[in-house]
Amino acid sequence: MANRVTNSNPPQAKNAWPLIGHLHLLGGSQSPHKVLGTMAEKYGPIFTIKLGVHQALVVNNAELAREYLTKNDKAFVGRPKALAFELMAYNYAVFGFSPIISGKRFSLDFDEQSGFQDLGGYKKMMKKTGKQLDQILEGWLKDQKLKRSELAAQHEEGFGVEPPPRRTMAWWFMVVHMAVDAGDAQKSSEVLIFIIGVENVETVECVRGLRVKSVVDVGYKESDTKNLVYLKAVIKETLRLHPVVPLSVPHESIEDCVVGGYNIPKGTRLMVNLSKIHRDPNTWSNPHEFQPERFLTSHHHLDVKGQHFDLIPFGAGRRMCPGDTFALHEMRLTLASLIQQFELETSSNEPVDMSASFGITVSKQMPLEVLLAPRLTRDMYGLGT
Ligand code: HEM
């Protein structure tokens, strides 16, 4: 099936690597990251597989992920080419699918002090927009206040809501706003195509345990975040257990390199099994349990910014997700506002079914149904007393 990469036979092993077939066919009904995780039990934290005619390296632990995404990040800066990206992404013009980040649009400079922060052009723009999100959202929240008031007035005893199966209006608002901010039509369309990886409705599973009541009054602001330590822990724990892109986005080596003593030929695909890393029992006690408290105690020092390789839901290095700040803002703001203003319950009082379906991003297999009941007084919804 798969081969361990060894010092003794790296290039020769290439011919012996068997054809496993396309990744999506690997598991039948099982998600590919789970299948690869099971294979890691047998073959170890690093092994190769064949994806059609391509050879791919699967990395399953934090230490190796660090080796590939820091020291060898430059060699693995490429993305595999695919007909789908050629056709759907304007011949690789969308930078997430662009095989090599180079030329005017990006700087490949690596700053020894600050790491991989200076990625130029779009990444900077996205980071900036992420930081400004608080102001951007203010407009949206004003619009929503009216709708919220109406809902609360109509349903003082509580009302059932089935959230939109895909993305929220808040999210669309932000993306469109970014596109407009980007200035011209070409950039706008590119920014709009960033619509990958953002949804994470699983987070809603966790809202009942939150303690925001005493922290914020009406109208959560990003500046309140520093006080919402438990909410931040919940988000981290959700991203740990349910990474949105469980196998990250594949990289491809643009030159031969040696990693961990193994010779890796140019053109090798790299798959970092985030899901496996995030549940490594050597790092995480009760790895399959949802325990946000760990981020207030044993793992309080870990963030999701690509510096701590035990927890890299946004990846790391040159191709790290530039939407991390944006996504974190969105999740905090949405969750905090929701919890602060409504009581949430599942309709059956059963635990939420967390089974996931695999696509570019992971989404819930079963629709999430929650009951919302207003928990503030009428005047706080802008309804008068
Ligand atoms: C919880 C939310 C999100 C998660 C967990 C996530 C995760 C990821 C991951 C794992 C990658 C691949 C990193 C790598 O190749 O090493 C990625 C890439 C990317 N993400 Fe996200 N993402 C999220 C939200 C967003 C948002 C909100 C945006 C844009 C508004 C975005 C835009 C991108 C882009 C453009 C890339 C490609 C970067 C490149 O190729 O250099 N993501 N994301």
TrEMBL record:
Alphabetical keyword list: Heme, Iron, Metal-binding, Monooxygenase, Oxidoreductase
Known cofactor(s): heme
Residues at which heme binds: 321
Protein's UniProt keywords contain Zinc: no
Superkingdom of origin organism: Eukaryota
Gene3D superfamilies recorded: Cytochrome P450 (1.10.630.10)
One MF annotation (Gene Ontology) recorded for this entry: iron ion binding
Listed Pfam families: p450 (PF00067)
InterPro entries linked to this entry: Cyt_P450 (IPR001128), Cyt_P450_CS (IPR017972), Cyt_P450_E_grp-I (IPR002401), Cyt_P450_sf (IPR036396), Plant_Cytochrome_P450_Monoox (IPR050651)
Family classification: Belongs to the cytochrome P450 family.
Name used for this protein in its record: Cytochrome P450
